[in-house]
## 1
Amino acid sequence: MICKVIVDVSNSEVDRIFDYVDGGLDVKKGDRVLVPFGNKKLEGFCIDTAEKSDYDPAKLKPIAAKLDDFSCISEEMLALMRFMKEKFYLRYVDCLRLFIPGQMRGGRVRELKRLYVELSKDVSEEEIEKLIPARAHRQLELVEKLREGGEYLSVITEEFGAATVKALEDKGIAVKTDKAVYRKPYDGLKSEADRVRLTDAQRQAVDKILGGDKTVSLLYGVTGSGKTEVYMNAIDRVLKQGKTAIMLVPEISLTPQMLRNFRARFSSGVAMLHSGLGPGERYDEWKRLLTGEARIVLGARSAVFAPVKNVGLIVIDEEHDASYFSESNPRYNTCDIARFRAEYNGGKLVLGSATPSIESFLLARKGEYSLVSLPDRISRHGMPKIQIENMSQELISGNNGIFSRRLEQELRKTVENGNQAILFLNRRGHSSFAMCKKCGYIAKCEDCDVTLTYHSVDNMLKCHYCGKRYKMLTQCPDCGSKEIRYGKIGTQRVVEELEKMFPGVGILRMDNETTTKKSAYLDILGAFKAKEAQILVGTQMIAKGHDFPDVTLVGILDADMSLYFSDYRSAERTFQLVTQVAGRAGRSDKEGLVILQTYSPSHYVYRYAKNYDYLGFFEKENNSREVTGFPPYSTILRVLMTGEDDETVKNCARNMFVDVRAYELENKNEFLFLQAMRSPVARIERNYRYQILMRIKREYEDTVVREIYRIIDENKVRGVSVFAQINPQSMS
Ligand code: ADP
Ligand code: ZN
Ligand code: ZN
């Protein structure tokens, strides 16, 4: 038997299938193996078996060993690998690595085995009675306990003492065995299984998602409309059909609350996969899914690769969230993966959001997705009022600070009343834009109508969509003011200002710096919930999912940061963010207020966001995308080339571009834009970076992308890594 093997080396030059002979090891498709490679032995994946090889079988080397006593990659995942390679231009091995816990590679995880105590099956009830004297209460109690089921030795010893256990063992009543232990993350979380009755709207939503003829549904439901209950009920129904389910949430909304809800509802049938797990825990959860012991997986993006079989339902909650795009190698879009798996298994995919991406809502409106709506909140309380503060006006009135006068006033009120406030700072990427603080003028690209990004290294403004460079502004071209802002407000500075304003008031700060430790994130949220502080200052991390009943005030300090981010999606992102952050205020019986500070108070994003008018916003934004030719009306494809030698990378880019250009000239009507250039960030970690950027008309996406990938293959050279990105989230 010939085994087709992908070796576990991430390198363009070895991204091929190698043939080995089985060597009598009975290797099957999906097994991990050890193979001789050059003068080394490497781990690899057997992705196929065949009767014959194109090579002389006498020259093929035999597989050295099988690495696991189970098969870790299913037929479905092998098909997914091929799909991903074709769609996202990935290496085989980079896909395969996503399918197994990282720690399995190199054999770094062992199954944990512990001693386990059970009643012996060879001893009858009567014999037990004879064997234990009536006064040996502890022994009798232990027998009583073991009648309900076995338990780990350590647990028993703690409760009954070693002597009691030994006594039963000596009499042959109890036996010890080795048993694999699964490390259960968050095992301490208690369940509170109070189940709610679905509203009519919720029940109809579940029916439509599972019963409709479309594979994909878009569940558009305002915040607090009870989407989570819909997901859980749909999952329940799918489980009853003997199938499995995948529930995806943005990493950030994986709060203990969410975990608790799922544990309460599905107990140990749910496994969790997210970055907060230790390697051992991650492996155990993965293994429970592989064996079918757990049939639901709850996790962040990468849980879409969970080894469950016969998937009946995949949920992507907060589907608009940027974290569903993987932006470093391997680059992929979670939604495409989920859709592949749903279609492969004849299951369903539901995308849920209060602010769906323009792309998804458009597909729903066109009828490609089934549109399921939950227009009303479960509770009778409305959404909090959003008050817009014009920061240019503040400047003109002599207030040069971080807080508008109104926000300062409201903060005082909140603190005095014993309530809580959240101050939100907008943070995306490491770059920034140039803006006039007086009139709100924003520097934009003359050709692309997107905001220019400020690069401090060379003090230039650059367009990330066409590569054009501009001098940094020193004066506003509109009003002549020299007050140009290009930096960001730091969380640290906000906290310092607050400490001056409110001496003695508890203030917490949550951002990348304060949450480097795994548990810090939960600690800070816990402290705020316990009212150890009255003000929480934070970045994106505090935007969603959290429920603090005493928060009555939310301040968005620099809403514009995402509005003018150099990205065609910036209006969309800002709308989503404002809606989400606003949802943190006034969640219980106390009325909430949101203060949004901006230099562009009349921008349409704020007009619609203020009224929570998603549909109005969609119409406007959708229209503008169509007019400017940005996604979803086009597809942006970025081919990124990196390598240590500048000349080599540049030449590779140049050669590739010649071929792409030739293709474009023959097919002019399929393209909207094509250019080769240095990447906006020209060098990262000693690697030089060049890119070919194109915008393709949507209807030609499939054919053009395939053709470009073919051109890449033809032009790839040693020393240059080539990556593709479809509609990248960031263009640095
Ligand atoms: P969403 O995910 O749409 O923002 P949630 O699922 O968090 O909304 O629901 C909002 C609140 O309403 C939660 O506290 C939830 O427990 C409650 N809830 C949901 N469905 C029902 C129902 N059918 N009856 C009573 N309460 C419900
Ligand atoms: Zn100006
Ligand atoms: Zn441009």
## 2
Amino acid sequence: MSKAAAIDIVSVTKTYGATTAVRAVSLKIPAGSYCCLLGPSGCGKSSTLRMIAGHESITSGDIRLGNTVVTDLPPARRGTAMMFQSYALFPHLDVAENVAFSLKMKGVPKAERHKRALEMLRLTHMEEYAARRPAQLSGGQQQRVALARALITDPEALLLDEPLSALDPFLKIRMRAELKKLQSELGITFVHVTHSQEEAMALADMVVVMNDGRIEQAAVPRTVFERPATAFVARFMGDHNVLSGTVTEATEKSATIGMEGGGAFVASGGGRAAGEAADIAIRTDRVRIGEADDPALGFTGTVSNIEYRGSSVKLSFAGPGIDDFTAIVGDTAFFARPIRVGDTVPLAWSAEDAIVLGRLDA
Ligand code: ADP
């Protein structure tokens, strides 16, 4: 259908009065990739997306789409299309007219634009609803119409602002799969804003984790999950214990982090110096209970809470200088040797499951 464009964001800042929403962000999104901007509310995701779309001015920096600097171009001349969270359909137009609206603005003759609208509706499985009004559609169907309307402009990049947030959980998962399929069929660049780490991991070729107007990490989902770059990413992605301390010993490939409570843990990751503050991450699903081999790779904890989750059990522990440490164990393993709140047990992990986290320069 259309060719995809790479998006190059070069040191882009956005301020609204005294608020800085985006702080000198640089990011290269490869052509034809599915990119998710992920982070908590207010971290600058939508501002970044709206600047790519041209719905928000860029305070400083540049955005390039393919070989074109689009910084000062209006939305319609950028080669992007935006799908809004609210769908923003015209209530007085039928579905086909909604989808064809931008072609009407461009002066495309009626028969031609109706034909193109039906093609787009076929793509989003909404052809049979062409004559309905938006009010006669479910939320999920309205969303498909909004998607068809965005795609009719033949964009090189589709920008989606929290496209699944208004759907119920079941529909969310279905639409998620359809978005991914559509993206791979069309081959165009998708940039999708979400605050759900699960959604980002399920969809993206590239996950961009944002916090307070900055990018904490941009990588393939597996890297973001397995090698979180910072404590923020490790906490936001979940399934990691983040412990903070001071580097007592550092080598090229690892560091020993002393905890306030007296213990010291070794973790992989170079470039640290003794005396620095540092954070380490330990995967919650890699913690072994009832084993004590190496004090640099474990501690003795007291069970503070137990949550049954079906296929797994979540155990919370407190230890020396450690308020809250989580271990996720399989249900079979847990019930084979159940433990109770108040029990004190040794906890251990393997060297490769503890990593030193980086810090962003302020
Ligand atoms: P996110 O999409 O991650 O929730 P936004 O980009 O919407 O974040 O917002 C980032 C920051 O900019 C927030 O502090 C928000 O309050 C502020 N902001 C966003 N839009 C405006 C606006 N139009 N006027 C003033 N402040 C805004």
## 3
Amino acid sequence: MPATSLEQIVSLAKRRGFVFPSSAVYGGLGSTWDYGPLGVELKNNVKRAWWRSVVYDRDDMEGLDAAILMNRLVWKYSGHEKTFADPMTDCRNCKSRPRADHVFVSQKGRDPKGLDEINVAIAAKELKCPKCGATDLTEARPFNLMFRTTVGAVDTGDDSGLAYLRPETAQGIFVNFGNVLDTMRRKLPFGVAQIGKAFRNEITPGNFTFRTREFEQMEIEYFVRPGEDEAAHQSWIDARTQWYVDLGMRRENLRQREQAKEELAHYAKRCVDLEYKFPMGWSELEGIANRTDYDLKAHSRSPENPDAVGELKYFDQEQKKHIVPYVIEPSAGADRATLAFLCDAFDESLVKEPPAEETTKLRDLVLSFAKSVDKKDPKAFDPEAKARLVAAAEKIAAGLPGTLPELLALSDDEAANKIEVFKKVRGVSEKLGEEFTRTVLRLHPRLAPITVAVFPLKKNEPRLVEMARGVKKDLQAAGLRAVYDDTGAIGKLYRRQDEIGTPFCITVDFQSLEDKTVTVRDRDTMGQERVGAGELGGALRAKVG
Ligand code: GAP
């Protein structure tokens, strides 16, 4: 069963060392996350797979790693200083600060024509605070999303040392267009790929690592002759979609969404979003835009830009003249892709039926939980959470034991945990879950944090331990991420590795000592085969691809 809520993913991620809340020892910092030992491996593998696909496997791409801090003028002429802002309004009644355009869209059923139209509606008391319903909203003002900092030891009090933490990696590529072109002696079409941190002071971060204020982007700027842009755009849309599928993402969970004309950024001719069906609904994974010649022109010396030192252009040998290339931009988020792969890989299912009396006991407990929620005063308990929990509990009770994985998912629900009887439900379901369910992360072998785990059948048998450690060392030497573990019975060790997505487990047993073969167990089929220890490295490398 796939994840039904993001909480299941958050819980697994925390429990098994993928992602931790940042600075938790001081109470955390809202919506900032640290990647733990397994998370950093997973995210690095995502970034490596992207780089391999868009740089190494192609002949028309180069890489770049531009600085995060850039001359402030980059952000002036890119348009970010003026336009990279969300319109915010304050509710004088409940002191919340909603996004004014979202309030307008949800209450008027259409996009506003601009800030003025929003403010006319606010002044006419036509818009209500989405939190408390009051019509006492302040005039909407643009709130710039760029983080400001000061460069240099002295804070002069004016803006002379002002710099921004880059809100996208793209501009670092545009301003290096000439450098890459000249040093790599490239001809059109060619592209530049970059992976790096970006920062946005998002008003409404959330949904775990989906929207944060500090994140990593994987961006490509692909330069083409005007006229060849539309075909190149379509080819990148296809290639980028296929990348996710090749790494195991289920096609039915991935879709291409054509942006409507009204949605397009002012510089874009066309934009297609790749969306993933996250537990919270279809949401953007990556945007693939045709940005025309907007950016290269914006950073070129002209009457509109007297600060640029030169022009970003290309001498076209065929036409014997300078042209300004068009740009196709596939722009992905490394954190979002990592989260999507995690969600897609998550699978929790019942592997055998618990005894009937255990199921009956659990069903009664779940029903008494539903009753207890139902009795809660809606003034004291969020009415939405109340309705959701009662419906979920009744559905789970009717479907037990098959719905045990759904009940386990509820263990991560904050509202459910506020109900006293849920402690009991949780205790019983977790005990049954241990024995009768299996959680597997079906990650592509190339993405899995650990590729292979090696166990000795018995940890108190020195010859088995020695051989298992040797096998692990050989696998490491073959370039595989391999670990040794002897901290539990083999069944328990398999279970732990399944939960973190390790595709292969190897057991060294007494037969191994005699014929130098080991058992290779496949995470997905749970099938086992004997393979010669000397052939393991090559065999597993071939499976990883
Ligand atoms: N240069 C174009 C650009 O930056 P974008 O749609 O704003 O376009 C591209 O961002 C990708 O970066 C998004 O599709 C998403 O994957 C990722 N991204 C953007 N904002 C993010 C945030 N606050 N947290 C995590 N990822 C984010």
## 4
Amino acid sequence: MKKLVCLILSLFLLCSVTAAFAEAQPVEALFVPGVYGAQAQGLFVPVKVVITVSETEILNVLIDATGETPELGGTAASKLSEAILAAQTPNVDAVSGATVTSNAIIKAATEALTLAGADIAQLDALRRDAGGKDIVKEAKELETEIVVVGAGGAGMAAAIMLQQAGKDFLILEKMPYVGGNTTKATGGMNAAETHYQKEQGIEDSTALFAADTMKGGHALNDPELVAVMANSSAEAIDWLDSIGAELPKISFSGGASVNRIHAPEDGSGVGSFLVDRFSAKLADLGVDVMLNTKATELLTDADGKICGLKAEGEDAYYTISCKAVILACGGFGANEDMYTQYRPDLKGTVTTNAPGATGDGIVMAQKLGADLVDIEQIQLHPTVEQSTSMLITESVRGDGAILVNQKGERFVNELLTRDAVSAAELEQEGQYAYIIFDQNLRDHLKAIEKYVKANLTVQADTIEGVAEQLGIDPAVLAKTLADWNEIVRNQRDTQFGRTTGMNADLTTPPYYAIKIAPGIHHTMGGIKIDTAAQVINTEGQPIPGLFAAGEVVGGVHGGNRLGGNAVADIVIFGRIAAQSALDYIK
Ligand code: ADP
């Protein structure tokens, strides 16, 4: 095994050189022959993929995912290497139970083949079946009652409800894996007046939840959608309980007046937890997600009612007849052309988004006259590690970490809303900062293991040791930390007025730092819906049979989404969209 890893590593180094000297690809060839490597962040570590190609064929795929858990890394590596070789394209199905590792392998393989001069769309078009024969896409017609577009959190929540209601429906997912941006949600789900809050003696109200959300969104939010989210949140927590997706651990998250963010018991990221539970529930219920199947166009009849959609799959072009469509295809944070169209100032900003977040739902709905709201409202997340685009969860600050600039000084109340903290970072020299925490915080927050394993952390037994590694004046950083610990002792932040995330001081060595800066995180704007998740057109009328939920929708979060509200949004409105579609087709 060690030998294989060494071979991969040395090939990996070699192939960067090969790639640098690669010449333009001849028109008739698919690749520039050679060995190419790339890596992408997996669950714990960057996974490495090295691919050997001839002019017309992928000859060999070596995958090193050994830093992931042995089961995940090993299984995904061998299965995906075979699948990519057989299909002759990187766009193959993810290995179930190893979604994040599979995603990373597929991403790295795509990058390596792109370095090899491949046009990935062309490889997809030439996709081979398992026997190695070229696949010719046929035209297929399908009929069902409802189609859900997108298998992220909102789409899967909707699909579970539709199946529980015994309806005939299809769920399409354009990527080879489910989960979308939902997989990346790290914090938790905001909900008020839940049984967990009551059991833990936390006083909260749906009115306070709504007020916090409006305040956090600079009152740009649609108050009716916000009220629905707040009022349905406790029930949504009960529903999650009922499908085995319990979120009992409650803590504080930026912009909330009380402890309201609900997370899994073991402290794991809420997104991957829910995606796993939702997929398991769908599998239990016998629902197959149509992977690698991209919705391309919505179809309406002469009265303007939804009557179907077109989609492109691995081996077929589908025309699907149906009575209702639920758009749950996420935002557009991975589509640089689209976000720079609405926000030219964001050109070149790294994104934390999953590759499927390309705004397809918005474009399809607009063609039917759907209205858009707050489309230019794009949230930057303040703590994104820039070389991997990995998001450092808000819980790190919520549990007590501080931010310092290159001078080693705090510069903001770290738990202000995301836009405010991001703006403060962009004012610092170099437009970045460091998040600082200690061993005690690491011991209580499982997410940190991922950052340590991915080598994102700088660590030392003393804070001065951390400072030295970061090129910060050790005396300044040591004073910042001492001042901070004094603030925690007195529970009074005389510097920046922080009032939350102050339960534990930072006094347990070793000390840690991660360099972070803002990254594109959430597109708050999108399709206009009413409280029943019906899509509303530019004349203020519902488009009959068209529903939308999740990040594809605008209005819930206004000008700034609070941490914990995306998960509330997808679970609550995913279910509302399903219920409305069921009522509509009755
Ligand atoms: P949300 O849960 O808010 O809906 P996610 O980003 O978690 O958002 O999920 C959206 C899903 O929709 C992603 O998995 C994405 O790949 C998928 N998707 C996006 N566009 C299409 C499309 N045209 N056809 C099918 N699936 C799509």
